[in-house]
Write a structure and sequence with these properties.
Layout (H helix, E strand, L loop, with lengths): L2 H29 L7 H17 L23 E3 L9 E2 L2 H15 L6 E7 L2 E8 L2 E7 L5 E3 L2 H4 L20 E9 L2 H13 L8 H9 L4 H6 L3 E7 L10 H10 L8 E4 L2 H14 L7 E8 L2 H7 L9 E5 L4 E13 L4 E13 L2 E7 L3 H7 L6 E7 L3 E7 L24 E2 L7 E3 L5 H12 L11 H9 L14 H5 L2 E5 L5 E3 L2 H14 L4 H7 L7 H11 L2 H8 L12 H6 L10 H12 L2 H12 L21 E5 L7 H10 L3 E3 L8 E4 L5 H9 L3 E2 L1 H10 L25
């Protein structure tokens, strides 16, 4: 062996030894929390390995500890199809629901022994990790359960994720193995992150869960590495291929393989033991260094798990016991009224800040005056607050006996707090509304709604920028977006100053991007325009129905100008509906039609439409010749339940391509209902009305052949004689 070859062989052997030693110390520090050496000694090992790899670049391996933070992938967050679906879990909201589930499982397994594994439910973001020949090959987010996003480059930066499986798990690692777990942000790391955010003048994160999910999807892996993320792994996708027969055994295998497995796991032989575990978890919740929001209870035996199977949404062999909402007391300081984009006045409770379920809250909606009266909350009260579902702040009510003297019942103001316009409460409704269409509060909300993703999707046009444009008099209504130019935007003063005292302006680069985004929004589909206008009761689904029916805003305006027959002597409901060209559209109806008429009956709103037309916004659908024959023209389908081979959107698109209408509700006008597993009230209504019900196999035939179903075709029986749909009631 030549001198160079011997030197290289020695370097390779030393690099491999260093990798093993560093990985060992990483496991001791990040997983076991039991370090054996100090930081200085550890850093010396890493420096030595880096020096060898710098001198011999060909010795660098993907699982080297030096490669945890590398370059971002060429294609950010490419879609990843999960080999096995990542199911969500059904919830038990209290011990009674948990007992009912336990009883069902015990009844299903009969006389056989049935133990349960109880694990803390980590409040984080789900991950799937794939190892090939023992080396981390891919990491993906949960996504919709079937398809996630490739976040391998970012997950490699998480120090407790092994880049190579430890030899203790198996002498020869399997060729391919997939594990699943939760990535989370420890509370101490969350506090440090928010302190850094505030120091940099950035808004703090709402809670550790959101911060963790956002960190995994950073474009720069170095940013992910700085977030101090951690994981708990809890599942082997194919444990029986490793000779494992129980979840408790799988967790031990995962520990031996080097994964961070939560230590608070118990195998319980009875419902009483499960109860005790859950009650203990509730008590220790506040003392843990990470957020949990419940307990996951699983049937321990994999054989029994397979026998119990799955519903369309969740395994029957596992359930999440959700903790009761954490409640805190605080003092209600004020009730402020917030004005929404449609003029709705919403009372908002403002109280002394209090930490609930991992984040600090200081306000919560009180919904409406009826809710305030029902709860009898008054300014100055000591109140109980919580987070509904551990997410939405909620005022439970006042603490009896602590009301201050002189506290009076709160009333909705008679004048809008934003514009002093009159406040009106429509008969039969709980919401009070400002009737002034020029209300400044509505202006900001309407502008933001128009620019939002669900509407015209003007990228970069955020609420802060919109407020500045309004303040400077550059934008009064949505049509003014289309009069903005690069020079005006580039010079826009953002209301902040630099260290040298000069104002911060938007700048040329951002201005160019905004103008491009505004131009792109001119050609959004008609449904986006209708939704963006903010017509009351016209959400995205109704907007799509209207766009498909009328094809242009002019045609809708003409239809809205027709005054329908008024109910009265000689005029039936059917006659009144038939006389209204908007209301008789499937999925619209008289209430939505009245709202549309009221909107376009306002001359200011019609003038706005004309300004949009003048500024180049497309107000009609571009209808090209259909790609497939319109063999389903005139037929209306309703999709309900969970389909196995199609997403709801994909099935609807395929039917529409053949000329069908797809509605969200069942009526006598419905031609067919396609029912998957767990179909509910729509299936029941179809049966009651005699609407034919199809299964997914019939849907496949329709999409493949383009032929409409017949009553005697398989899966095409009338509802009255239809065989039960899997998972459907009755």
């Amino acid at each position: 062996m030549s001198g160079a070859s011997a030197e290289r062989a020695a370097a390779s052997a030393r690099a491999e030894a260093l990798r093993r030693e560093i990985s060992h110390h990483d496991h001791r520090y990040y997983v076991l929390d039991a370090p054996e050496i100090g930081d200085g000694a550890y850093d010396a090992l890493v420096r030595e390995l880096r020096a060898i790899e710098a001198a011999w670049p060909e010795l660098v391996t993907p699982d080297s500890p030096t490669q945890r933070v590398g370059a971002a992938p060429d294609s950010q967050f490419a879609p990843v199809a999960h080999a096995q679906r990542m199911y969500s879990l059904d919830n038990a909201m209290d011990l009674a629901e948990l007992d009912a589930w336990l009883a069902r499982v015990v009844a299903a397994v009969g006389e056989r022994e049935c133990a349960f594994t109880c694990e803390l439910k980590i409040d984080g973001s789900s991950l799937a990790l794939v190892y090939e020949d023992g080396v981390l090959a891919r990491a993906a987010t949960r996504g919709d359960g079937r398809t996630g996003e490739d976040v391998t480059a970012n997950v490699r930066t998480i120090r407790d994720v092994p880049l190579r499986l430890r030899a203790g798990a198996a002498a020869d690692p399997p060729a391919r193995i997939e594990v699943r777990g939760e990535v989370y942000l420890p509370l101490a790391a969350f506090e440090r992150l928010n302190a850094a955010q505030e120091e940099a003048g950035q808004p703090p994160f709402a809670n550790p869960r959101n911060a963790a999910a956002g960190a995994v999807r950073q474009k720069d892996p170095a940013v992910t590495a700085s977030r101090e993320l951690a994981t708990f792994v809890y599942q082997l996708v194919d444990p029986r291929s490793l000779g494992l027969s129980r979840q408790s055994e799988a967790l031990e295998w995962l520990r031996a393989a080097g994964f961070h497995v939560n230590p608070d796991v118990a195998t319980c032989a009875s419902a009483e033991a499960v109860h005790a575990y859950c009650e203990e978890a509730v008590e220790k919740r506040g003392s843990l260094p990470y957020e949990i929001d419940g307990v996951v209870v699983k049937v321990d035996s994999f054989a029994l798990q397979e026998e119990l199977g799955y519903t369309s949404k969740a395994p029957r062999w596992a359930i999440a016991f959700k903790f009761p909402a954490e409640e805190k007391t605080t003092v209600l300081r004020d009730i402020r009224v917030q004005v929404g984009r449609t003029g709705a006045l919403t009372p908002l409770a403002e109280f002394d800040p209090v930490t609930v379920a991992g984040s600090t809250i200081a306000r919560a909606t009180l919904h409406n005056i009826d809710e305030i009266r029902r709860k009898d909350v008054r300014i100055g009260d000591t109140i109980v607050v919580r987070k509904a579902g551990d997410v939405i702040p909620e005022v439970v009510g006042p603490v009896a006996g602590l009301r201050p003297e002189g506290a009076v019942a709160w009333e909705m103001p008679a004048a809008c707090p934003s514009c002093a316009g009159p406040v009106w409460r429509p008969e039969g409704e709980v919401v009070s509304r400002c009737t002034n269409v020029a209300c400044p509060a509505q202006r900001l909300e309407r502008l933001g709604h128009w620019a939002g993703r669900g509407a015209m999707d003007i990228d970069g046009m955020g609420t802060e920028l919109i407020a500045r444009l309004v303040e400077r008099g550059l934008v009064h209504d949505v049509s003014d977006f289309y009069a903005l130019d690069e020079a005006t935007l580039a010079a826009l003063d953002l209301g902040r100053v630099k260290k040298d005292g000069t104002p911060v302006v938007l700048g040329g680069l951002m201005a160019a991007k905004l103008v491009a985004a505004i131009d792109a929004s001119r050609t959004r589909p008609l449904a986006r325009v209708l939704f963006g206008l903010g017509i009351r009761h016209v959400g995205s689904t109704v907007a799509e129905v209207l766009a498909a029916e009328f094809g242009s805003l002019d045609a809708l305006l003409d239809a809205a100008a027709v005054e329908p027959l008024a109910l009265g002597e000689g005029v039936t409901v059917a006659a009144a509906l038939a006389s209204d060209p908007v209301a008789r559209v499937e999925g619209v109806g008289p209430v939505i039609a009245a709202s549309i008429r009221a909107f376009f009956g306002n001359p200011d709103n019609v003038a706005l439409v004309e300004r949009l037309r003048e500024r180049g916004v497309r107000l009609a659908e571009e209808r090209s010749a259909p790609a497939r024959p319109q063999t389903l023209a005139g037929l209306t389908f309703v999709l309900t339940g969970a389909l196995e081979r199609h997403t709801r959107d994909a099935a609807a698109a395929a039917l529409k391509e053949l000329g069908a209408k797809v509605s969200g509700s069942v009526s006598k006008k419905t031609s067919f209902v396609v029912a998957g597993a767990d179909a509910g009230s729509k299936y029941d209504k179809a049966v009651a009305l005699g609407v034919p019900v199809l299964d997914e196999a019939a849907l496949d035939r329709i999409i493949e052949t383009g032929e409409p179903p017949t009553a005697d075709a398989p899966g095409g029986s009338p509802a009255a004689d239809a065989p039960p749909v899997p998972g459907a009631p009755g």
